[in-house]
Design goal:
The protein has helices at about 1-5, 15-65, 95-110, 110-120; strands spanning about 70, 85, 90, 95, 125-130, 135-140, 150-160, 160-170. By secondary structure, it is α+β, with helices and mostly antiparallel strands. The strands form 2 sheets. It has a 6-stranded mixed sheet with strand order 3-4-7-8-5-6. Strands 1-2 form a two-stranded antiparallel sheet.
């Protein structure tokens, strides 16, 4: 009976160190669960964004290396407003130097419009054309300094009858 006085209060309330410990453990488990689930969700979001960047870069960069663009001689257009799509090839994987020079110039002067034409949306883009020895022949565009998400696309091409590598770097824009 004396023990019952310590466990049950006058109003029938029940108090026990076991319940306090159980509540603390329950709160700790909830805390760790929410932390773990938020980490897992952010990891899943990063994977989904990486997949999206990969799909966009593959589609966009494959298209500019396989197609001549629209109009066919867009490199001679008076402004980028007259260009419907950008293509660097006069034949699949054979880079036209005039188109490449115009592409680089448009990237330097109208970066956002070029990004829009290529369908990059909220991603930054930089390209490099690299010769067989690793020297950079042409480059242009920009890459975000926040390299949380970075995707590199490379393809072998012909440039001036020599083998070269077209390298596109896609990163999450700030």
């Amino acid at each position: 009976m004396i023990l019952d006085k310590f466990l049950i209060g006058e109003k029938g309330q029940f108090f026990s160190p076991d319940i306090v410990i159980a509540i603390i453990v329950f709160i700790a488990v909830l805390f760790f669960f929410f932390n773990a689930s938020s980490s897992a969700l952010s990891y899943v979001d990063l994977l989904e964004e990486k997949k999206e960047a990969e799909e966009i870069s593959h589609a966009s960069l494959s298209a500019i290396l396989a197609l001549p663009g629209e109009p066919f001689s867009w490199e001679y257009a008076s402004s980028i407003a007259d260009v419907n799509s950008i293509g660097l090839s006069y034949e699949k994987n054979i880079i036209d130097e005039n188109k490449l020079v115009s592409f680089k110039n448009y990237l330097d002067t109208n970066y956002l419009r070029v990004k829009e034409l290529m369908g990059f949306g909220h991603y930054d883009f930089r390209f490099e054309l690299v010769d067989e020895l690793g020297g950079i022949i042409y480059f242009g565009g920009k890459v975000s300094p926040n390299l949380k998400l970075k995707f590199i696309y490379q393809r072998m091409v012909l440039f001036n009858n020599k083998q070269a590598t077209f390298k596109g770097v896609i990163s999450h824009a700030e």
